[in-house]
Amino acid sequence: MHDYPLPGDIRESHHRQGDDLLTAGLGLAGLRQARKPAVDDPSRPTPRELRRRAIHASWRSSADLDPDGGFGSVYGTVPDIPGREYHAFASLPGARACHRVLLQAPDHFDHKRRCLVVTASPGSRGIYGGIALAGAWALPRGCAVVYTDKGAGSGYFDAKSGTGVRLDGTRAIAGEAALEFAPTVDGTDAGIAIKHAHSGDNPEARWGDHVLQAMDFGLAMLDRAYPDAAPFTPANTRIIATGLSNGASAVLRAAGADVRQAFDAVVAAAPNVLVADGGRAFYDYTCEIALWLGSALGSPSLIEVAKARHGNNLPDDLAWSETLADAGHLSSASPEARSQEALERLLAAGWPPAALQAALLTGDIETWRGAGAAYAGAYLRCPAGGLPGDERFEALVPDAQGRLHSGGAALRASWWPDAPGLPPSLGVVPTSLVAGQPLIESVLRLQALATGDDADACALRNGIDATAAALPHADLPLWIVHGEDDGLIPPAFSSLPYHAWLHAHGRHPICWHVPHVQHFDALLGWPALAARYLPLLPYAYAALDAAWMHLEAGQTHADDKAAPIRLPSRPRAGAPLSPTHLGLVAPPAT
């Protein structure tokens, strides 16, 4: 019995003999290669080639695969896992757009410990986005894994060619095949439509439902994969939900909506979670740091960190500060004083200094602006071709002379496997950049939506309010893992208020905060970051291990600590990662 409707069209594929579930036959050595797996015809890649590219991109976006980073030796493993996959487009009642769901069913499924791990993609990534966390932990253990892209993903629709993405990842013209995203467009000048930004659904408001529908899909596909053991239900199958970043927020949202109490445990890593009684919305502080950090990086406490990334070719913070001053946002007279004033604005808003340093090393204004534009589009339920400030996305690539032109079939074919789900990337850029519009004007427009009182600003805040988490049931075993130095989703705005809120309402989560950990494991191959930071994934794996052991032992789950457990990590300072750096020789006590 399922609470959510099951898809009608389901694609089953087999993955054995050099094409496994976890690495698509690439193995750890292939995943470590920066070069994308080759395709015979870039304009018409095959479903198998696209899948391999998508898995490669998903791993490299979430894991530190540098040989000195410790994956495969200190933590993590990628054995050959043969099995089957079941793909479908699932639809929630009332939604305009679908979300992708995928079950990976290993041949060596453990029938004695029937287990389904449920996950959602981090960020706005495609369906394999959670493979480095959920797949890498669950599949070697004999668990099945079900994924959802939670209404986001990289199934971009190109209005000019009228094409989108089929279930198998190849492209087709709208009307000639079922597509991942096929919005109604008025003419061919709507640019590139992104499901997260242009579906009209505000998908973030229903992330929990996406996860729960994926769980139902996973159980139904387990019936199909292992008919002799059917039926698979929450009563006879262990169900663990886990996710990273936006995926972590999605599973926490699902935990709050899980009226059947189907989840046996939840593990959330670096969750972008909002509670109504505290914390801050991702849109608000993303616009805030996009506005102020360009000026603040010239302050004495940040200038050396900025140089560690940019060298002496720092962004033009002087011009940025002058523009903010001209617009009345900064009052200091000198560039030095304006930099300090901008920094003090961020500190007064609650930004920890360590998070600002990590943000300088791992982010940039254009990326934050792109995220802000897409999230604003979602909250305002903008149609294809429309974002705040008449912004839209276009596919434009330079030719040999540097002139921009529309990307061709090869570029469009690369989006589904390689794109992160939000521009700017892979030739998809905001039109304001092409028009030469000052970046700061776009950032100020987005900031005005966060702080204004006109109709659009009120509608945007209503959209954000719809994304707040609800309380999980009182007895749910729940682990939260977060890096103290996270510069994208600072714990002070997300996991800390969520943890306090749960305790205030009689819940007992276990929360690990890890010094010297930021948000992006994938960037740790860069020496400047490797010297400062540790990966998050080993702590997420350790939390999943602790959840598993807890369920195996049948222990009572309770943690009355009002503050998170701070783990004894220490930076590797350029040395190869070792267990002593992580402080995880044994899983932390609960």
Helix and strand arrangement:
Layout: E1 10-15, H1 27-32, H2 47-62, E2 83-90, E3 99-106, E4 115-120, H3 131-138, E5 144-148, E6 157-158, E7 163-165, E8 171-173, E9 192-193, H4 195-198, H5 207-225, E10 238-244, H6 246-257, E11 265-269, H7 282-296, H8 303-310, H9 317-326, H10 335-348, H11 353-362, H12 365-379, E12 393-398, E13 404-406, H13 409-418, E14 428-430, H14 431-434, H15 439-451, H16 455-465, E15 478-483, H17 495-504, E16 510-514, H18 527-530, H19 537-553, E17 565-566, H20 579-582
Parallel strand pairs: 4-5, 4-10, 10-11, 11-15, 15-16, 16-17
Antiparallel strand pairs: 1-2, 2-3, 3-5, 6-9, 7-8, 12-13, 12-14
Quick gist of this model?
The protein is 36% helix and 14% strand. The protein is of the alpha/beta class.
Q: How would you describe this protein?
A:
This protein has 20 helices and 17 strands. The two termini are 35 Å apart. The chain is globular. The chain has 590 residues and is an alpha/beta fold. The protein has two domains: 1-154 and 197-280 and 468-590, Alpha/Beta hydrolase fold, catalytic domain (Rossmann fold, 3-Layer(aba) Sandwich); 282-463, no CATH class. Helix 5 crosses helix 6 (246-257) and helix 7 (282-296) crosses helix 15 (439-451). Keywords: Hydrolase. It comes from Acidihalobacter prosperus.
